[in-house]
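Our consortium's second objective concerns turning raw sequence data into structural hypotheses that experimental partners can test. To show how far this objective has progressed, the report includes one record in full. It was chosen at random from the queue rather than selected for favorable results. The single chain below, 398 residues long, was entered without modification.
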Amino acid sequence: MKAPPSNTRSLIVVLAVITALGPLAMQIILPILPVMQVAFDVPAATVQYALSLALFTIAFSTLVYGPASDRYGRRPVLVIGLLIFVLGSAIAALAPTIEIVIIGRIIQAVGGAAGMVLSRAIIRDLYDRDMAARLMAYMITALVIAPMISPLIGGLLNDAFNWRAIFIFAGVVGVLVLALALPKVPETLERGSEIQSFRGMMGGFMVLLRVPRFLGYAGQVGFGMGMFMVFLGAAPFVMINVLERPPTEFGLFFVMVSAGFMIGSFLTGRFGQCMGLDRMMRFGSGLAIVFGAIMLGLVLAGIWTPWSIFLPGAGMALANGLAMPNAQAAAVSISPRFAGTASGLIAFLQMLVGAVFAQLAGIVQDDTPIPMAVLMLSASVLAFLCSMFLTRVGAKSD
């Protein structure tokens, strides 16, 4: 382990900003998905690829950055990732067709994944386990706050300028982050230390995928993310096209959903040890079904308002905050030998399943909020079934 730098505070601030770059760019486009649909005169499912394919790309990119940084160093891989992010943002901003926008988004996602992976690796390189755990909290905060505020920023930029301003903004932020990273982020990889090869990592994946308990926890996390991604993919179209509300209003209501997840995560930290991981996970999974049924009941009754969508959505996000962190922690704890590998595999499966549900939301989208509510309830039921499956394979309660 290298000696920690004297400027720990400034380094952590820079790493938190780098971590937030990918999530910010991923969700800042939510308010403009319907706007781009109109601008390019394409179906909703086509525009949805700008979200779902970016999610697929992040999922696979997270598998590559770790081994690449082990071989070539943290700093050069991070710099290359940031440059790729800026390039993708520029391509999307100048795109003459929706296909070029999607290509730009894919390139942007490749670059944005770098900070999400390498910030954690840099912290692990520099600090002991206890200190690293404390500093990781700042990374998690960045991952939560960025998606919370980015749709509002996107709506404001679209209203003030147009949809291209969002990609210009992302590119400018990428340049500023790169300018901060170059002088502040050192090379932290210890040469000659034992590293995990890509082949070794894949071997660990195969071991974990044969463990029924891991599959149960992974399913809960994956379908929980799928529930959230259906909302991310469909709610902008419902809000803007069906309810005819401005993109900025979507951003404001979306803060409610992000706050719900934060409250659920806080309650998990406060009461999770008392209830036990598995019990709280099952409670959260069941609660998500309740809120999903409320949303579906309201829209089937013809009550189509932002409140009838976002209040149950916030409830489902709160339930996810109760369930998903516990499922993630339990999955990583199954085998101490493969804790790091399990963390990477969970992240990959989470993004992969989320991308599938995001694209499904675009494919079944019509002029009502009903398909969104049905898909969200379906994902919540699947997540609950995964949590109940764990009781059948002998998952131990904490």
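The partners drew two points from this record. The radius of gyration is 20 Å. The chain has 14 helices and no strands. Both points have been shared with the crystallography group to help prioritize constructs.
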